[in-house]
């Protein structure tokens, strides 16, 4: 009967686990700050157990075999959690590849006198472990993307504060790019606040918007129209000189929207619309 | 004669790629010392073309080049996609023409924002738009 590496692994799994842990503890990519020794052992034990329980002489050369689904699940969970915990891709990769090394060491111990079998078996395990490595990277990246996605949502939430600057006057500073989903959030919170406060004027400040292209412009125009439908007036402020020039060249018509260069001038305009006057007090005049 | 000093390829597959791509264009523009007004024009033009790419072709690729002609430096952007192509370029270049119920300002507006503009399109094969903005253009 042909030599079975699967059987070797299964019957030596405690030894394999020890060898792997030794390697990990000796490695410079060990992150005791991110994961305790116990956690590391538990995680590694689970992977070794799963691998040795599913691997057979037949499936070892068939990575795509559904037998390995369980291993993939464990691997995915490990690399997903590592991505969230802040491990680097390198550290996560080395984690899996050090298992490969441990397996190689074990093979060498057992097959020292049979180089031909050693080579053949090493090739098999190499291919298998490489595909485990790829899975690890794929899920690691996905884990990171999830983090980014969540942060993006959080940013969208916190970055649309509608501020009541005066009785009847709302201000909404927009920071960042105004894409479709962002516009939706902005519009909803603005319209809701108009209802809640009974405000008649809304100032959209775009000082923090890096570029106004036709899409952003369209979103602004839509927001202004929606505000008007609610019976409120809308002023767009924070139009920087470079933005003004770009908008003109692009050919966007903002002529029927009240626009102001600064939030201060928009506020002043809003005051005059509400027939409010800001006066310096008499007392202060005397001091001057 | 225009010489290319550096090249960088960015692939665009979705809406989320727009902002990082624009930042890369901006980085290059800042690197050659382009002023704020020209930077903003370039980034806005880039934004229009990349949005068209996503919207009408689904995806594509952009090459960002730093170029020079004599003492003048500039940024050249080449947007290529394998989308449906544009049947009538003259029509597409007109202000207000849109098959997407939009403002129809992207292409004609972009042409006004840059120094050189070239569009080639073959129906069923795709579209390539090349723009160039000089540092002091
Ligand atoms: N990469 C492309 N592939 C296929 N068709 C395109 C492409 N870019 C533009 N078009 C066509 O050209 C038309 C005009 O484009 P343009 O960017 O000027 O306007 P728009 O995208 O419709 O509106 P806006 O850019 O103002 O939101 C589009 O409606 C579309 O039919
Ligand atoms: Mg467009």
From TrEMBL, chain A:
Instruction: Please name the PROSITE patterns in this protein's record.
Output: STAS
Q: Which CDD domains match?
A: STAS_RsbR_RsbS_like (cd07041)
Q: Which keywords are on file for this protein?
A: Phosphoprotein
One Pfam assignment: STAS
Q: Could you tell me which InterPro entries the record lists for this protein?
A: Bact_StressResp_Reg, RsbRD_N_dom, STAS_dom, STAS_dom_sf
Residue ranges occupied by any STAS domain in the UniProt entry: 159-270
- Establish whether keyword rRNA processing is in the entry: no
Q: Give the matching PANTHER family.
A: RSBT ANTAGONIST PROTEIN RSBS-RELATED (PTHR33745), RSBT CO-ANTAGONIST PROTEIN RSBRC (PTHR33745:SF3)
Per its record, how is this protein called by name? Answer: STAS domain-containing protein
Say which species the protein is native to.
Spirosoma terrae
Automatic annotation (TrEMBL), chain B:
Transmembrane stretches in the record are none
| InterPro entries (alphabetical) | HATPase_C_sf, HATPase_dom
Pfam families, from UniProt? HATPase_c
Q: Which residues form the Histidine kinase/HSP90-like ATPase domain?
A: 37-137
Gene3D superfamilies with a match to the protein in the record: Histidine kinase-like ATPase, C-terminal domain
Source organism superkingdom: Bacteria
Q: What is this protein called?
A: Anti-sigma regulatory factor
